[in-house]
Design a protein that fits this description.
The chain has 857 residues and is mainly beta. The chain contains twelve helices and 40 strands.
Length: 857
C-alpha cells in the first residue's frame, strides 16, 4: 500500500482528548466556565446606552495594557504598541494567526510550518519581533502559554506556538516592540505579542474558507464556528465558544518552480568555469557518450562534455516537503459572571490538536541498505515521512474587580503541551531481492521516535490604583506578584536511540513587580517600573525601566524609555544532562572507517549557566497633524550579553583551544565525540527604525486609506563564542547562527471601503542579502565557497469582502497576485537537502486563490 501518514493511537491520558471527541468532551465542563472581559468600559457603556438600556453592573474603568502593570487605557499611547483590531483581522484576509502575525513588518525570521523538514525538526509556529525569536514573548490574555514540548539540551526552543489559538476567537492583538522584562520577566527582550480574545459573542456564525494554490499541493481548507449568549455589562454573565478545524495539503519541492532542485547554473568564476548548485542526490548508472540519463535522473555534473562517459544521479530533493501536511482542531470557550457590581469571576479553556507529516529524503534508520539502488522505485509511490501529533490544553481561572478604590485581578493558569514523533518508512524486510523496474506501492512501517511534554502552572495577583491628585494630574500605580512552575518531560521510544531514554526536570520561580505613572507637568509624564525574579537553579534577576512622554503641539507626542531585561535558560539547559543529538555511527563501517562515518555530538547541560542580560533603549515621535494624516517613527536598540548556547562542531574543530577541551578522537569501534557544553557565548546587538505613515481620504467611491509600515535595520551583529569579535549579520547570512538581518522590510497597503464592500492591496518587500555558498564549480565535482548576493523578495496580495446581507458575507482574495518567486538562496539551515529555499524569509507557496463565506445564524 502507498506510504502515507497513518498515526497510530497515542496514550491519550498523556496526550489529551481524541480529536474526534474534542468538542463533545468539552461542552459539559464548559457549562460552568468563566473568562475575563476585555472591552473598554466606556465602549461597553456607550453600546448599552445606544440600545436604550442602562448598565446594571459597574463598568471598571481600565483594562490591562500590554507592557504595563497599571490598568489605565491612557498608558497605551506611552508605549510602542501596534494594535490589530477585530476589523483589521477581518480585512487582512488571514486565515489563521500565523498568516496574520507573519505578515507584519516588525516580524522577521520567525518559526513557521516549513523549516527543517528534511530532518523533521520544522513545524513549530512562533513570532519573532525584529528577528529575535528567543526574545519575543507570546501571551494569551496577558498570561503565558505552555512552551513548545520538544525541549532540547543543545538548543533553546522555549517558544509558545501561536497555531493553537483559533483566529475567530481573537478580539485584538497587541504587538509591543520594546523590552518588557520589568513587567513580564523572562523572554520579553525584543517585545511582546499579547493575543486578546473576544469579550462577548451575541450570535452564532460559521465561516468556511478554501485556498487553492496555482500548482500541485499546498491547498488549505478551514471551517470556523462561533456562538455566544449574554453580555456581562447588561446581563451580568456571558458565555461564548469558538471552534476551528483546518487542513493543509503537503507541498513538495517538485510542486513549484521556486523550489525546483534540478542542477542550476548560477554563474562563472574568474577562470570561466561554470558554477552550479547540485541538489541532494544519489549516484546512479553511468551512461555512454551521447546517451541520455534514464527518466528522473540528471547527468552529474552538467559541465562534463557530452562525448565523455558520465554518471547519472537521482534527485532526492524533489520528494522533500517544503510545507508539511497539517490537520488542526482548536476550541476556545469562556464564561464570566458578575458576583455583584464590584466583582467578576471568569474562566476560559483552550484545547488544540494537530497532526503534521513531513516528507524526508531517506529512511530514518537504514544502515547497510543500498538506498541509492532502491530510491527511484520507492520515492514516487511514497517517500519516508516523519510525523508529529501535538496536543495542547490551557485553563485560566480568576477573579477581578474593585475593592476599596483599588482594581485587582487574580488568576490561575494551568497548561500542557504534548507531542509524539514517529517515523514512517518502507518495511525493508518485505522488499524483493532486487529493485523493480518501475515504481510500485510499498508496505510501510511506523517507528515511534519520542514523546515529550511541557507543563505550566502559574498564579498571579495584580493591583492598580491612584493617589490624590497632583497639580499636574493624578499619579497611578500598579503592583503584583507571581509564582510559576514548569515541568519538562522527554522519553525516547526508538530502539536505536541516539538520545537519553528519559528526562524529567522541573523549575519553580517567583517574582514581584511594581510600576508608577507620575505626571510631572501638564504635558509631561514619567513611568518607572521594576521587577525581581527568583529563578531557582538559574539564580535571580533585577530588571527596571524608566519611560517619559512629552506632548508636543496639539496632536503630537515624544516618548521614550530605557530599561533592562533578561532571558532565563530552560531547565534542560541548566541541569547536568548529557544528550546525544546527532549521531553518524554506521555499525557496518564504523570499525573500518572510524574517522569518516563514526562520530557523535553530545550536548551537555550546565548548572553554572547564567541568564542572558539585556539593555534596551527606545525613542519615538508621533503626530496627527490633521484628521487625514498621521505618522510616527521609533528608534530602538537592544544589546544582549551572555547569550547561551552550545558550540557547533565547526566551532570546536576550527579552534585549537576548544578542540582540546571538547573533541575526542575516534578509534576502531569507538566513535569520535564532540561535546557541546551549554555556556554563555557572547553578545548580540541590534538597532533600527520602525516607521509608519497613514493617509485617510473620503471620496465618492468610499473611504480610501493608504498606509506604510516598515523597519529600517541600522545595526545587527553578534559574537558566537567567548572571546570572538562580533560579526555583522546586517545584510549578510551568518553561518554560525544560520540567519541574517535584512536592511529594510516594509508593507505598503491601499484599501477602499464603501457600504458593503471592502478591498485592499498589500505590497510586501524585504531586501536581499549576501551569502557564502558551497557551489559545484566544475566537472571535477569540486566545491568551493562562493560569495554571492540574494536578490530582494517582494509580492502583492489582494483581499476583498462583500456583505450581501446582514447574515451573509463573501470573502475572496489572491495571495502573491503576480506569482513572484523568492530569489534562490543556497545558504540556510536546510541547504544540504533542499538547497534553494529558506521558508523563514520567503513564501514558496506561489499564487493562491482564496474564497470563503461567513454566515450568521
Amino acid at each position: 500500500m502507498p506510504l502515507r501518514h497513518r498515526p497510530e493511537p497515542i496514550d491519550r491520558c498523556r496526550q489529551g482528548v481524541s480529536s474526534c471527541a474534542l468538542v463533545l468532551a468539552l461542552l459539559p465542563p464548559l457549562a460552568c466556565a468563566a473568562s475575563a472581559s476585555k472591552a473598554l468600559a466606556g465602549e461597553a457603556q456607550a453600546a448599552d446606552e445606544a440600545l436604550g438600556g442602562a448598565s446594571d453592573y459597574r463598568q471598571f474603568g481600565g483594562i490591562e495594557i500590554t507592557g504595563s502593570a497599571i490598568l489605565n487605557p491612557r498608558s497605551r499611547e506611552a508605549l510602542p504598541v501596534t494594535v490589530l483590531s477585530r476589523r483589521d483581522i477581518e480585512l487582512s484576509g488571514a486565515r489563521n494567526l500565523a498568516e496574520l502575525l507573519h505578515g507584519q513588518s516588525v516580524m522577521l525570521g520567525f518559526g513557521e510550518s516549513g523549516g527543517l523538514n528534511w530532518s523533521g525538526l520544522g513545524g513549530q509556529v512562533s513570532a519573532a519581533i525584529h528577528g529575535y525569536e528567543a526574545g519575543t514573548l507570546v501571551l494569551l490574555n496577558g498570561q503565558r502559554l505552555a512552551p513548545f514540548p520538544a525541549q532540547r539540551v543543545d538548543k533553546d526552543v522555549s517558544l509558545a506556538e501561536i497555531s493553537q489559538i483559533p483566529l475567530n476567537a481573537v478580539e485584538r492583538i497587541d504587538i509591543l516592540v520594546d523590552g518588557a522584562s520589568a513587567r513580564y520577566g523572562s523572554d520579553a527582550i525584543a517585545g511582546v505579542v499579547n493575543i486578546i480574545t473576544r469579550h462577548h459573542t451575541r450570535q452564532a456564525d460559521i465561516s468556511v474558507h478554501h485556498t487553492q494554490a496555482d500548482g500541485r499541493g499546498g491547498a488549505m481548507s478551514d471551517v470556523q464556528f462561533s456562538w455566544g449568549r449574554g453580555r456581562l455589562e447588561s446581563e451580568g454573565q456571558a458565555f461564548q465558544i469558538h471552534a476551528s478545524v483546518s487542513e493543509h495539503a503537503m507541498q513538495l519541492a517538485r510542486d513549484r518552480r521556486a523550489t525546483d532542485t534540478a542542477p542550476q547554473l548560477v554563474g562563472t568564476d574568474a577562470q570561466g568555469q561554470a558554477q552550479y548548485v547540485l541538489p541532494f542526490s544519489l549516484p546512479g548508472p553511468s551512461i555512454a557518450p551521447g546517451s541520455a540519463c534514464p527518466e528522473a535522473y540528471f547527468p552529474s555534473p552538467p559541465t562534463i562534455p557530452v562525448e565523455a562517459t558520465r554518471a547519472c544521479r537521482y534527485d532526492l530533493s524533489q520528494w522533500l516537503s517544503v510545507y508539511p501536511s497539517e490537520q488542526r482542531r482548536s476550541l476556545f470557550a469562556s464564561y464570566e459572571r458578575a458576583l455583584n457590581k464590584d466583582h467578576v469571576v471568569f474562566i476560559d479553556q483552550l484545547l488544540h490538536q494537530e497532526a503534521q507529516a513531513f516528507k524526508v529524503g531517506a529512511p530514518w534508520a537504514a544502515h547497510g541498505f543500498n538506498w541509492a539502488a532502491w530510491a527511484p522505485a520507492m520515492l514516487p509511490t511514497g517517500s519516508p515521512e516523519r510525523t508529529r501529533d501535538k496536543s495542547n490544553w490551557r485553563s485560566n481561572l480568576g477573579l477581578r474587580g474593585q475593592w476599596a478604590g483599588t482594581e485587582y485581578r487574580l488568576g490561575l493558569v494551568l497548561g500542557q503541551a504534548s507531542m509524539e514523533e514517529r517515523a514512517w518508512q518502507p518495511d525493508l524486510s518485505t522488499l524483493p531481492s532486487s529493485p523493480p523496474a518501475t515504481a510500485a506501492p510499498l508496505q510501510a512501517q511506523g517507528l515511534a521516535l519520542d514523546r515529550s511534554s511541557t507543563q505550566l502552572a502559574a498564579l498571579q495577583a495584580q493591583l492598580s490604583g491612584q493617589w490624590a491628585d497632583w497639580p499636574a494630574g493624578t499619579p497611578r500605580w500598579g503592583a503584583g506578584w507571581s509564582v510559576q512552575q514548569e515541568r519538562h518531560q522527554y522519553r525516547n521510544l526508538a530502539r536505536n536511540a541516539i538520545a537519553d531514554d528519559a528526562v524529567d526536570v522541573q523549575r519553580q520561580q517567583w517574582a514581584v513587580f511594581s510600576e508608577l505613572n507620575l505626571p510631572l507637568r501638564e504635558r509631561t509624564e514619567a513611568n518607572v517600573s521594576f521587577r525581581f525574579d527568583d529563578l531557582g537553579i538559574s539564580g535571580n534577576a533585577w530588571t527596571g525601566k524608566v519611560g517619559l512622554k512629552q506632548r508636543v503641539g496639539l496632536k503630537g507626542f515624544l516618548r521614550g524609555s530605557l530599561g533592562t531585561g533578561f532571558r532565563a535558560p530552560s531547565p534542560m539547559q541548566s541541569l547536568p544532562l548529557a544528550w546525544t543529538t546527532l549521531s553518524r555511527i554506521d555499525p557496518v563501517n564504523c570499525a573500518a572507517n572510524p574517522g569518516s562515518v563514526c562520530s557523535r555530538y553530545v550536548a551537555v547541560g550546565n548548572p553554572a549557566l547564567q541568564a542572558e542580560r539585556s539593555r534596551q533603549f527606545w525613542l519615538g515621535y508621533h503626530n496627527e497633524p490633521s484628521p487625514r494624516w498621521s505618522f510616527g517613527v521609533d528608534y530602538w536598540r537592544f544589546t544582549v550579553s551572555d547569550i547561551f548556547g552550545a558550540l557547533s562542531r565547526d566551532d570546536i574543530l576550527n579552534n585549537p583551544e576548544f578542540k582540546a577541551l571538547y573533541y575526542q578522537e575516534s578509534s576502531p569501534g569507538v566513535p569520535a565525540q564532540y561535546t557541546g557544553l551549554n555556556q554563555n557565548l557572547g553578545q548580540l546587538q541590534r538597532s533600527g527604525l520602525d516607521y509608519r505613515l497613514q493617509h485617510r481620504l473620503p471620496t465618492d467611491w468610499g473611504r480610501v486609506r493608504v498606509s506604510l509600515h516598515g523597519t529600517r535595520y541600522l545595526h545587527a551583529q553578534r559574537s558566537t563564542y567567548p572571546g570572538r569579535p562580533a560579526v555583522s549579520e546586517l545584510g549578510q547570512y551568518l553561518d554560525q547562527t544560520q540567519s541574517f538581518i535584512p536592511k529594510n522590510q516594509l508593507n505598503l497597503t491601499a484599501s477602499l471601503e464603501r457600504d458593503q464592500h471592502a478591498y485592499s492591496l498589500v505590497f510586501r518587500h524585504i531586501t536581499g542579502h549576501s551569502e557564502t555558498a558551497m557551489l559545484l564549480l566544475n566537472h571535477e565535482e569540486s566545491r568551493y565557497p562562493v560569495r554571492r548576493y540574494v536578490n530582494s523578495n517582494w509580492r502583492i496580495d489582494f483581499n476583498g469582502r462583500y456583505q450581501a446581507s446582514s447574515k451573509l458575507t463573501w470573502l475572496f482574495g489572491v495571495d502573491n497576485l503576480l506569482d513572484r518567486d523568492p530569489s534562490p538562496t543556497y545558504q540556510h539551515p536546510n541547504a544540504g537537502s533542499l538547497p534553494v529555499a529558506d521558508t523563514r524569509y520567503g513564501d514558496y507557496r506561489g499564487r493562491r486563490l482564496k474564497v470563503g463565506l461567513k454566515l450568521g445564524i
